[in-house]
Amino acid sequence: MFTRQNRSNLYLIAVVAILLIATIIFLGIRSNNEAKNIVEQQFTSQQLLLNQQISRGIEEFLNEKILLIEIIAKQESKVPPDFFKSNFKTIYEESSGFFAIQYVNESGTIVSGYPEENLPLGYNLFENNRSSAFETVQKSKETYISDVVQMFEGELGLFIWVPLFIEGEFKGTILSIIKVSDVTDRFLKNYSSSGHVYLIDKSGIILYDNSNELQLNKNYLNTTDEINLQQGTIFQKQINGTEGIGNFFETSENGDRVKCIVTYSPIRWRNQIWSVGITNPVSNVDSLIHSVYVKQGAFIVLSGIFILTGSMWIILLLSKWNKILEEEVAYKTYEIKQSNELLRSANIKLKEVDQLKTEFVSMVSHELRTPLSAMKTSAEFLKEDNCNSSVKAEMLELIIRNIDRQTRMVGDLLDISRIESGKIRFNPEITDLHEIVNLSVKNVYSLSKEKDITIHVNLPKDLPSVRTDKDKLIQVFVNLLNNAIKFTPTGGNVEISSVEFNNFLEMRIKDTGIGIAPDHVDKIFDKFYQIDSTSTRKVGGSGLGLSIIKGIIEGQGGTIRVESTPHVGTTFIFTLGK
Ligand code: ADP
Description:
Radius of gyration: 69 Å
Number of strands: 18
Low-confidence stretches: none
Order of helices and strands: HHEEHEEEEHEEHEEEHHEHEEHEEHHEE
Mean pLDDT: 87
Bound molecules: adenosine-5'-diphosphate
Shape: rod-shaped
CATH superfamily of the largest domain: Histidine kinase-like ATPase, C-terminal domain
Helix content: 40-55%
Strand content: 15-25%
């Protein structure tokens, strides 16, 4: 199916197809990575945004609580201490989130508060060695939040100390307590996005972790464990109050190291800094991008199929074109061979014509010179004084015959040139064939007598007349009869007969002569063609007779052909229209 050229095309196209597919795969992988990076970035910034929202929420919640207490503390300057209880109750009930709000008098004893069941009334801070925050507030005269501590109830709690000064005199503090779990339940427990969320305070202690992966109340800052070290580094940034994105590796259940994205955002409230962190394994991003991979894979496969099909199609098209081209070349080669063949035979023909011309020139010279020398000899005889009258008559007869012979020769030359130039004119008239045949036979009678040849005329009496040029038809008969007599040995026979058809008559002139060899039969109608063209031939002639006859017959719409058997005889057959 494939030629060498096609095969090299095939290889070329296959290489191009493979390169295209490789490029698509390369670009696909590159764009995959780019898409992965973009999705990862988007995912991370979304996570950070969510992280910020959570932190802002907690921050506002805690600051609001402080503000409420501080407002009461300011008002207390004008009201007696009994007022605390009712005010604390109002705040406790209207602003949810407080575990207890209590008044600690200037000597450090808890004297009142709300709700009573959460109050250790009469508890003295100094006696229990827990007065440091109290003293700090007294000194700084500013709200102070102590680090998260374990409460009596075992839960983690945060203590907000607001100082109380009446007319510049320290009157104790309002201590409000918020359970860490109240904050985390409100803001972190319902966190439902992927990954896990955790909360640490400024010492790096875990206050909350929804996945329980980190140990509550534990500090990871000073760990030596490699994995927790990364976590510790991130924690360090968190307790510095920065906001950001980071990565760390955690060990999955089956022992693999899983890369995680972590975002963190601080919660600033007075002297405290907390930080909320959210972590997510990178595989979560991969699952998001998975559908993009599937689509890209499908695209690559489809492109590959498309390129391969396209390449096959191009190869088939090329081989088809090649085939068409080859056929065209073969056809053109055949045409060139044909025209070469034609040229070759035309060349042979030309050579033959040239040869014929040479022969013709020598023949014409011979044919012209022979009568001329005869005439010259006769004329010299006539010049002699002693020439008697019978010799004179014979000489004159000889001269006349030779003049006729030359006239015929010149006539033949003129005829053939008229036929060839298409200038021959016919004068058709209704012609009685009996009359024409009789005249023609008479014309050759003496010649036939000389060779003792009998001419048989076998024509039906009711032979229909034909419309033809009389003189030219006589010329045809005379010529054919002359040839028949010329080429028939002494004592032979010549027969003129006819066959009638619907629209035409067929005339036949048959002799019992030497016949014509098959390889000459096709050529005898060519001008100047003589089977024996040597000057030593027995019979004279110009080789023009038959071509003139052909021109006359065909010029009037007839045909002429010959049938001959060597040494048996020849029949010339021509048609005449009725
Ligand atoms: P030419 O004037 O030489 O006879 P033609 O054209 O009449 O020329 O004839 C061409 C050749 O055909 C002759 O030279 C002869 O060889 C051959 N030919 C013509 N008629 C006959 C015939 N009846 N029998 C045999 N050969 C013939």
